[in-house]
Every structure is written in C-alpha cells, then in structure tokens.
Amino acid sequence: MTLPDPELTPLIPAWPDAGEWLGLGRTATFDAVKRGEIPTIKLGRRLLVPVADLRRLAHLDPTPAPVDELASRRSA
Question: Distance of alpha carbon 9 from its chain centroid, rounded?
Fold first, then answer.
C-alpha cells in the first residue's frame, strides 16, 4: 500500500487510513495518537493526520533539519 502524495491529499483520517498504512489496529492507532507518536489535527470530533508527517514517520521522506541547525550551517 502506498501513502498518498501530501500535495494532492494533505490530511487523512487517523482511522482507518493512517493506522492501516502503519499496520496498526484501531486501538493501537488511538493509543499512539494519545502518546503523541502519530501527529494529528483535531477538527471538530475528527482526528486527521497530516500526510507529510505520516510519510516522515514511515521514513519515506527526509525529515527537515531544525531551523537552528540550518542557521548554524549558513554561518559556518
């Protein structure tokens, strides 16, 4: 199963889509959300997962460097 392109589909439901892509069941998905392991945005009663964050979590896209690290590289 391939994750969607964040440019085309920026947000997906926490369940079933995000959990399914990570190989998690419903309870495990919501437990991971509670622990902050899966980043979410709450809209009303819906929990949505940013696709770009999910792709980074699955190590499909590079993690952007922190702003402080970028600043130190420029000044070096």
Answer: 12
- For the whole model, what pTM was predicted? 0.71
pLDDT tens digit sequence for 20-42: 988 999 999 999 999 999 999 99
Q: Give the pLDDT band of residue 15 (cuts 50, 70, 90).
A: confident
Residue 64: C-alpha distances to residues 21, 44, 53 (Å): 22, 29, 11
Can the peptide bond before residue 16 be classed as cis, meaning omega within 30 degrees of 0? Answer: yes
- Residue 61 CB-half CA count within 13 A: 15
Structure tokens at 41: 């945005």
How far the first Cα of the chain sits from its last, in Å, is 42
Three-state secondary structure call for residue 27: helix
